[in-house]
């Protein structure tokens, strides 16, 4: 086999290089063999024994998988066990043997075809795919018709698994062995069992390669690039070298992320800070925690409204919030009530187009105009708070009166729930986003009215500097280090702390290491950001001494321009903490 | 025989996991259990039957139960479906 590059679909990132181990292709006989009358009974007996052996095998595999990979993955075997017990399956096989006086192999293959036709006619993709489970069970039974174990024992060496398609049980048993470096498959897609397992086990995988299994044989050298969805067969030395270095880079990156996530979130002088994650899908929770998040600092809820053409029900909200709260437990989840209006419109509400949407009916302004919508969401958030790790966050607060109105509605909703005897956290925290400059200016007043505050820097800076950062003609004005901005943010942080209230910052400022160091200097301890930036920011904050940063930042407050502030901070931190800068691309 | 129309309400429909629960519960009763959807009738104690039914969310099915414990069987199976097979959505 010569050098060859094949394009497929990368379903689990990373690169692996190694020798091919070809998986057996699942086939059923196409040859009808008949038996004499007196042998029919024996064939039926063979099938029954094969079913029995398969049951024993599956029960063993189920326990192994459960132990190695958790109950979630062992579940498919429960379905397979039930299929083995399914009378419609056993009786149709036995009937064919009796009626056609055929060998068991033929009968099983006929029944397999029958189900294949049945499943093929199903429109729904998920149900159609369940044929793979039927094939799985019947293939195992066929192999068990022989007394001897036919399973090719692999040599235990680390190799790359190449297959036409992997049966669900095969994927689970093979991948959990720990000797699969990578996977390349003809069939399969993003949601195939093999793809899901590979991702959860960090095994690079490329699927949908059409005929890779026919092109390769045991012992061929291949590269599986799950990041870019490519398979390279028998690479020449230069290509191999290129991928070895790509692999090293990727592995180092992964290693660094994992290591950083494990470290404590403290500065050099042992001041504790808390990295939090901004997310919007429940599926992102586990990824956020694996990157070192210590809570969900901002859970956006807009997507719930965009999922269907009608308004979401209380149950729609509740199932999502409770899932996130459970997964994050015991860490906190700050759920922001819906922030739509402005450019992000909700077609369901038929809001009239406004001449100046950024300054119009959006976020809390909109929900106070549509109180039923607000109540549904508050009820769901309260119900999800039973384990006391949920907080309510109100976006776009402009004046104290709005907090008062929110509290009245919240109290009414709480009273409703009490009457219905539905449990919730009686002391649930209520917080306000500081993103309107007017709110920032009265932080001391607002702080008295709520349990905590959260600064949304993206909108705050844009409103404060009156510059739309998506407008390239004026975006140069959007400077987080504009002296006015840093002074304002310092005021907000200090005012909240004077009132003894918790203060978080969620916005892109928290995701930039240099800016995060400055915010730390103002006394900020809770940084909420897109989780992929957590390791970088955590590293930078771990490399500095809080006391020193505080002094440096203090002095920078008297400088005239954003550029002067940036240069001053970089220079001075470089003197005090060379490592924080060496940590690389600190301003990137 | 007793029968009743039921709506499948869980997000994934009568998918593999739900089908396993259904069959396991149906097997606890002596009565025979049939599920009918759009004129097709399958054995409610057969997982293959249920999977080929391909009952997605919002499908209407008819449960037909016959035997000495038919009342209890019907009630239990209906509750399983109504409770979305103990799934969250």
Summarize the structure.
The complex is a heterodimer of chains A (588) and B (89). Chain A is built from 25 helices and 16 strands.
Describe this structure as you would to a colleague.
The complex is a heterodimer of chains A (588) and B (89). Chain A has 3 domains: 30-143, Enzyme I, Chain A, domain 2; 159-256, Phosphohistidine domain (Glucose Oxidase, domain 1, 3-Layer(bba) Sandwich); 263-582, TIM Barrel, CATH 3.20.20. Helix content of chain A is 49%, strand content 13%. Chain A is built from 25 helices and 16 strands. In chain A, helix 1 (40-69) packs antiparallel against helix 2 and helix 10 (237-262) crosses helix 22. The longest helix of chain A is centred in the N-terminal third of the chain and has 30 residues, at 40-69. The radius of gyration of chain A is 30 Å and the shape is elongated. Chain B has 89 residues and is an alpha+beta fold. Chain B has a single domain (2-83), classed as Histidine-containing Protein, Chain: A (2-Layer Sandwich), CATH 3.30.1340.10. Chain B has helices at 16-26, 47-53, 70-82; strands at residues 2-7, 32-37, 40-43, 60-66. A 4-stranded antiparallel β-sheet of chain B has the order 1-4-2-3, with helices on one face. The termini of chain B are far apart. Classes of the chains: A alpha/beta (588), B alpha+beta (89). Chain A binds chain B through residues 75-76, 78-79, 82-83, 86-89, 115, 118-119, 122-124, 126-128, 130, 133-134, 315, 319, 322-323, and chain B through 12-13, 15-17, 19-20, 23-24, 43, 45-49, 51-52, 54, 56, 88-89.
